[in-house]
Amino acid sequence: MVLVESEAASWVRDSGTIEAVRLETRRARMRRRRFDTIAVHGVYDMSEALRNQGAILEPVFAGPSQHFATSEEMAAALAYEVPAWGYSRIANPTVGYVEETLALLESYGSAIEASACMTSSGMSAVHMATMPFLDVRAGRRMNVVAGAACYGGTFMLFSERYSAERGVDVRWVADPGDMAAWEALIDDETRFVYVETPSNPTVTVTDVEALADVAHRHGVPLVVDATIATPALLRPLALGADVVVHSVSKCLAASGAAIAGVLVSRPDILTRVGSEEMRSDFAKYVKLLPGRDHGPTLSAASAFAVLNDLRTLRGRVDQMSRSALKVARFLAGHPAVKAVHYPGLDTHPARDVAVRQMRLVDSEAGDGGPERFGFLLGVEIAGGAAAARRVLDGLELVFRATDLGRVKSVATIPAISTHLQQGSQGRALADVPANLIRLSVGCEHPDDVIADLDHALAYAGAA
Fold first, then answer.
1. Is the Cβ–Cβ distance between 241 and 234 less than 8 Å?
2. In this predicted model, which residue has the larger pLDDT, 139 or 240?
3. What would be the CATH architecture of the domain defined by 313-459?
4. Residue 340: is its pLDDT beyond 60?
5. Do the Cβ atoms of 230 and 101 come closer than 8 Å?
6. What digits encode the pLDDT tens for the residues 172-205?
7. CA-to-CA distance for 122 and 132, rounded, in angstroms?
8. 5-310 has which CATH code?
9. 287, 263 in Cβ contact below 8 A?
10. Helix (H) or strand (E) holding 243
């Protein structure tokens, strides 16, 4: 196709408009569907299949770059004037399908038109979701307020990379359920509020709606890590959060075939810093500008693996949650166990918040009700740190690994693995004792998991 310059510009603009309308039409159509349907299809419909030689599954676009019909199209695409993917460090069609699906799932049941940005890992998602707010041009006395009950990698990012290396004042909230404690630490130089709920590994539950109110009264955004809940149980944007992050490597991609992360944002986030472009569509801004320059890229192959796992998300979360509750009840009654941290137990200090927030999406009351509390347990062994190691070593079915959210059950001792680097003071602040075993319950029959735990507790002589 050969076009004169004016014709080329007109053709590019018209084709770009058509593509944008097609995508918005698919989004609007899927917003009318139920959660499971969105998880299975995303925005990849029959029209998309016919444009990809009839492929029912989303194709893997493995190539690093896009061919353009004309130089005019190339110039417009790389200036972000028309929809395109251009180069896989910036965007990729397979990755785009995952982003669209997760944006729809996170905003499900609300009027929010969310957007998403996939990253190469959960930690890159946390970094890209928080780093843009740390703009030194807006003032050098900045601080962030964060819940200390969080993943060890997040703790190290904030305490080492942000605080020690860049001079950011990181203010930790020891009890994230204490709204007065959050309020007391936020001031005119606070850039964002950050919480993980339920937290890893102590399964602390925070009232997202109440915390969003606190943050917004001070004009700062709330960033929530909802990895342990997934959108099948908790959708923080609908409760007032501005940005949600996930380590997609966990329950969203439960087969264990991919490492990935995602940040999802509502439109028009509340922030004291940044451009209007950043405020209006934060995830898109991160994807096309800071993401372009930092390069936390997710591969197309990993995106394809994530897509296939997402299709069964709700059913898996339901099964894993039911099994985890049964396991938690068993452990709570075992003489070798000092304490079990699980929101489904009556002993959990924030059970009322968990019951209100964590509900299986599209679930009606019956067979125990719609309340589900996730797959993660924190188990304190009565015999101390040495006994916890003996229990871990005695497992024969449950894998000893630092992963979680998998279809296969895994366990670790955070004090010697995921939270080792933050040191004894950091672990004390986050209330991560040396005798704590973090147990992620998978899709095995719960009776087999219980039998393995019973064997390990007895075999280790912890009773």
1. no
2. 240
3. Alpha-Beta Complex (3.90)
4. yes
5. no
6. 999 999 999 999 999 999 999 999 999 999 999 9
7. 17
8. 3.40.640.10
9. no
10. strand 243-247
